[in-house]
Amino acid sequence: MAEQKQPEVDLATRMQVDESVVGHNEIDESLYSRQLYVLGHEAMKRMGASNVLIVGLKGLGVEIAKNIALAGVKSLTLYDPAPVQIADLSSQFFLTPSDVGKPRDEVTVPRVAELNAYTPVKLHQSPGLDGELSQFDKYQVVVLTNAPIHQQKAIGDYCHSKGIYVVIADTYGLFGSVFCDFGEKFTCIDPTGETPLNGIVAGIDEEGLVSALDETRHGLEDGDYVTFSEVEGMEALNGAEPRRITVKGPYTFSIGDVSGLGQYKRGGMYQQVKMPKIINFKDFTTALKEPEFLISDFAKFDRPQQLHLGFQALHAFQLTHKRLPNPMDNDDAIVVLGAAKKFAEQEGLDIQLDEKLLKELSYQAQGDLNPMAAYFGGIVAQEILKAVSGKFQPINQWMYFDSLESLPTSINEE
């Protein structure tokens, strides 16, 4: 018996959220159980009130979209009207050969929407991103991938002025970068996400030096805050405001001046208190000239500055030639290297450029690898969740990574 063909479902229907599943903005604890364990209900509620826009739907963009759709934000909006190319199929897992020539966002949106009935997925309707920047006002987070640097500057600086969180990411072959701007005075409620430490007090001297019981390591760090309970002799400490500590050793820490609090007798418990951390992010244009790097590999300590110049050189090459450098094209690589040197001179940097590294970056610039997209897609999705939840220390502000170790050590060219 011939198999009956299912009727084609239109785009609008496939993008609808199943209201019978979603309910009244409730958190499905069975679906999000692991996420709730890590983030907590309050952070999940903040995520559930956030609208996220992702620009660029090649391999990296769709990895981010997939992760955010599964995380459960209020809405996810995608934008990339460029036509699908056959090369996109190497890393964009939602595309098929029959999609070639169609707008990337139109074919991707309904497929992302199927991942999670709780997350509505929409198309961003706009004739272009270079026009009216107020089109971004309705989003809490804007993510840019595969965007030219002039768009990164314009959109990034505008969002900074409006308090909209921005994440910018790119991959070129085995190279990749992430930039985060969560605005001035961003509040990180819990930088570590770890369970607060506690312990038994063995003694508190007149200088405010607290000793842990039986030489038990307290595990605290300089700048942590603690409160006390059940202390005898220094009862004023019990239930008092959290005190900032200075670590004196693995078994002792100082709470500062304790004069007038009496003489310690016995007992007591200390409890670590998580205090909000205020982080000031620079806008994109400022951070481009005054970068702060998160070191992802201490064996490559000097590489972030090299790649920071190299990525700018790639953008300059693309602006001039309307394309990225060709694979293994030495002439293109020399142009990229020259642009990197020019940027270094303009910024007054006293740096010896790694010519071999920057040429390798040029050789791989057109590469769009699924493993790199998956790696950076996970990182970017985490940064988005950090922004909207306020939990965990975000990247401040640039992170560069390469996996050149994945290349073979020798290739026979024939």
UniProtKB/TrEMBL annotation:
Pathway: Protein modification; protein sumoylation; Protein modification; protein ubiquitination. GO terms for biological process: protein sumoylation. Residues 205-274 form the Ubiquitin-activating enzyme E1 FCCH domain. InterPro entries: E1_4HB, E1_FCCH, E1_FCCH_sf, ThiF/MoeB/HesA, Ub-E1_IAD_1, Ubiquitin-activating_enz, UBQ/SUMO-activ_enz_E1-like. SUPFAM superfamilies: Activating enzymes of the ubiquitin-like proteins (SSF69572). Transmembrane segments: none annotated. GO terms for cellular component: cytoplasm; SUMO activating enzyme complex. Pfam families: E1_4HB, E1_FCCH. Residues 275-343 form the Ubiquitin-activating enzyme E1 four-helix bundle domain. GO terms for molecular function: SUMO activating enzyme activity. Keywords: Ligase, Ubl conjugation pathway. Belongs to the ubiquitin-activating E1 family. This is Uncharacterized protein.
